[in-house]
Amino acid sequence: MAGRGRLRIYLGAAPGVGKTYKMLGEARRRRERGTDVVVGFVETHGREQTAAMLDGLEVVPRAIVDHRGASFTELDLEALLARRPEVALVDELAHTNVPGSRNAKRWQDVDELLSAGIDVISTVNIQHLESINDVVEKITGVPQRETVPDRVVRAADQIELVDMAPEALRRRMAHGNVYAADKVDAALGNYFRIGNLSALRELALLWLADRVDAGLQQYREQHDIDSTWEARERVVVALTGGPEGETLIRRAARIAARSAGGDLLAVHVTRSDGLTGADPARLAQQRQLVESLGGSYHQVVGEDVPNALLAFARAENATQLVLGGSRRSFLSMLLTGPGIGATSIRESGDIDVHIVTHSQMGRGRLPRVQGSLSRMRLIYGFGLAILLLPALALLLGSGSDTLNLTSTVLAFLLAVVVVALVGGLWPAMLAAIAGTLVLNWFFTPPTRSFSITEPNNAIALSIFILVAAMVSSVVDRAARRTRQAARSAAESETLATLAGSVLRGETALPALLERVREAFGMTSACLMERVDTDELTETWRSIASAGTPTCRRPEDGDAKIPGRDDLVLVLQGRSLAADERRLVGAFAAHAAALVDRARLTEAAAEAKPLAEADKLRTALLRAVGHDLRSPLASAKASVTSLRSSDVEWSPAERDELLETADESLDRLSRLVDNLLDLSRLQAGVLPVFTRPTALDEILPGVLGEDAADVTVDLPPGLPLVEADPALLERVVANLLANAIRYSPPGRGPLLTGSSLGDVVEIRVIDRGPGIPAEDRDRVFAPFQRLGDTDNTTGVGLGLALARGLAEAMGGSLRPEDTPGGGLTMVVSMPSATMNDVPVPGRLERGAL
């Protein structure tokens, strides 16, 4: 079976930069090298230079797809799969296929080609990427209805940026190399302004830089490269929750800003071995400051703060680490040894460490709750035992004439207690044993001998050892309890961060798994679900993952934490301690809850159309009884009268009865059509296919028998609109019918239009009673006839259907007051585009 094909994408910052030209150039080079290359679909947009590049290349004929009475050409996927070339050219990756095609989107066609082992070369513009679609619309003002998921483009084996300076692209357009001459002025004055092109170019460069950076990070992980590669400045700032945090963040942000594209990462280490007391409110404020400066906030759990900081910095390929000067006093540093800054500098390797001074330096020490006895305390305890006992023996020996054995034993007992408080059990036991020997040799008769003749002396020495052991045991137990309390505080802080992320809406599974991976220093985290089980094997699938490599089975991981019976959180990187497993279990349970909530949301979304349909049917049964019976009754009465042999009808009377039957059946047909369309809208199954449409094209169907009552005033030069002609005709017809119904005699409605930016507005203006502002939303509800008291004027579907159809085509419908009294209904539709760029058009007035 052939392996998966390779995908190469030419990414452009804007239309016209030469993506298709570059793609064809690559195809010609490969053909010259003997590669079997065919053109699956290439759009030249009438550009002669691009069309000339097709010469000599094999082109697979396009498929003809019929839709709504029109024929369109699309990529012939079946023919291309049957041809099976080595390389296929497929232009415009984000293109939406005509309804009736094999796939809805062209990128899905490309995925099938890749699965068949065919290499594909394609093109896409930056504005079509889903993640920045809204940003592009804000910059250019042009909505992009065709998008491609970022994951599709990121998964490409090669991405090449096709770049061009904004001035050069505008010159190229002015020379007619992009669009026809009659479209150039409008394009240069709208989409292709210098500012728009510069912003799009920056978006393209930054997006591609992020993708390259992700690829570099993956390469370093695959090859176990721990050293820092200074391809891009990354500044990590360490936060303790102290008052100096804002100073450090701003200083780190300035350092990152000195390099274009520099990243700012803030990290707080929750120490399981003692560092607690960080102010959560202050950390939250500092997190907001980091994010407002364009950085990201991270939290990790570490046994040793310097090592945790440096491990995080190396994992993120950081180039610089910013630390605050120590707030500990000089005496505190003498007693506890080198601090975080000194240790980080010594162990940093090729990461630059900045120690930033601040106003809190030397004004105390970080709030610490001692957990387990550190190595330094053990060293101090043994050292104190070795030095204190000889010194005490010399001191007491010089005053042996005035002190009795009881006082001497108590003095040595005090020394042992001091050693126990400093060093814990083992230094205290050493001091107790050594103290017993010293007391026995120097102070217990007979001296200079280890024999004890007095029973009281033996009892005193035994009590001495027992008290020393008990005190040291209490100290050790207190240290163990303090360590557990510190660990619990660290876990609580991590869970508080999790809860905060949930409250802020950061509930996506990948984000949660990334937090688990970061917090526990793992290489990857994967949530897996058991989908099938038989007597011999279990089948698992990955729901979401973070980091690399991704596990395929729970057995691939170093730690497996169950979220529930069929869900397990799999971590790779190291094994977990028992207390860590308890904390990760909370994350696993929350991840399982997220999965359940997502599925319930999907089920609710699937049930919503059914509920809406039920609601619609209920309202229909309540509201349309008379409206269905009335035209049926009129038509039946007319037909029955005509068929009656008891009455001799005159020709005029027969015509009148036929006209009544005809009008009743027309009324019934319109009602049924509206009901069916509204039902399809509610269920989301109404087919919509937009194309450039002239407003004159819809007027013949809009203007019926009441055309004499309607004034049409469409200005010349209106652009084409992107709409489904049949649906737009229904929208305007329903609005005109409503306006005619409420217009006073002799003052029929006015139909006019205007163009504003990239939007064409169609206005239906009447001089009727208007609608109060508080009732404007109600008039668009189905079966709502504002102010009607009977069922003789319809069931109130016209406006509801008009708004639904307009929104289905990407437009909108809103009511406005008519100056001087009345109601104006405004239909806003996007102007037609060519290659996603507004195309100026001219609406030629036809005979009405």
From TrEMBL:
<dbReference type="InterPro" id="IPR025201">
    <property type="entry name" value="KdpD_TM"/>
</dbReference>
<dbReference type="InterPro" id="IPR027417">
    <property type="entry name" value="P-loop_NTPase"/>
</dbReference>
<dbReference type="InterPro" id="IPR006016">
    <property type="entry name" value="UspA"/>
</dbReference>
<keyword id="KW-0547">Nucleotide-binding</keyword>
<keyword id="KW-0067">ATP-binding</keyword>
<feature type="transmembrane region" description="Helical">
    <location>
        <begin position="409"/>
        <end position="438"/>
    </location>
</feature>
<keyword id="KW-1133">Transmembrane helix</keyword>
<feature type="transmembrane region" description="Helical">
    <location>
        <begin position="378"/>
        <end position="397"/>
    </location>
</feature>
<protein>
    <recommendedName>
        <fullName>histidine kinase</fullName>
        <ecNumber>2.7.13.3</ecNumber>
    </recommendedName>
</protein>
<dbReference type="InterPro" id="IPR036097">
    <property type="entry name" value="HisK_dim/P_sf"/>
</dbReference>
<dbReference type="InterPro" id="IPR052023">
    <property type="entry name" value="Histidine_kinase_KdpD"/>
</dbReference>
<keyword id="KW-0597">Phosphoprotein</keyword>
<dbReference type="Pfam" id="PF00512">
    <property type="entry name" value="HisKA"/>
</dbReference>
<keyword id="KW-0472">Membrane</keyword>
<feature type="domain" description="Histidine kinase">
    <location>
        <begin position="623"/>
        <end position="833"/>
    </location>
</feature>
<dbReference type="InterPro" id="IPR003594">
    <property type="entry name" value="HATPase_dom"/>
</dbReference>
<dbReference type="Pfam" id="PF13493">
    <property type="entry name" value="DUF4118"/>
</dbReference>
<feature type="transmembrane region" description="Helical">
    <location>
        <begin position="458"/>
        <end position="475"/>
    </location>
</feature>
<dbReference type="InterPro" id="IPR038318">
    <property type="entry name" value="KdpD_sf"/>
</dbReference>
<dbReference type="Pfam" id="PF02702">
    <property type="entry name" value="KdpD"/>
</dbReference>
<dbReference type="InterPro" id="IPR014729">
    <property type="entry name" value="Rossmann-like_a/b/a_fold"/>
</dbReference>
<dbReference type="InterPro" id="IPR036890">
    <property type="entry name" value="HATPase_C_sf"/>
</dbReference>
<keyword id="KW-0812">Transmembrane</keyword>
<dbReference type="GO" id="GO:0016301">
    <property type="term" value="F:kinase activity"/>
</dbReference>
<keyword id="KW-0902">Two-component regulatory system</keyword>
<dbReference type="InterPro" id="IPR003661">
    <property type="entry name" value="HisK_dim/P_dom"/>
</dbReference>
<dbReference type="InterPro" id="IPR005467">
    <property type="entry name" value="His_kinase_dom"/>
</dbReference>
<dbReference type="InterPro" id="IPR003852">
    <property type="entry name" value="Sig_transdc_His_kinase_KdpD_N"/>
</dbReference>
<keyword id="KW-0808">Transferase</keyword>
<dbReference type="Pfam" id="PF02518">
    <property type="entry name" value="HATPase_c"/>
</dbReference>
<dbReference type="InterPro" id="IPR004358">
    <property type="entry name" value="Sig_transdc_His_kin-like_C"/>
</dbReference>
<keyword id="KW-0418">Kinase</keyword>
<dbReference type="Pfam" id="PF00582">
    <property type="entry name" value="Usp"/>
</dbReference>
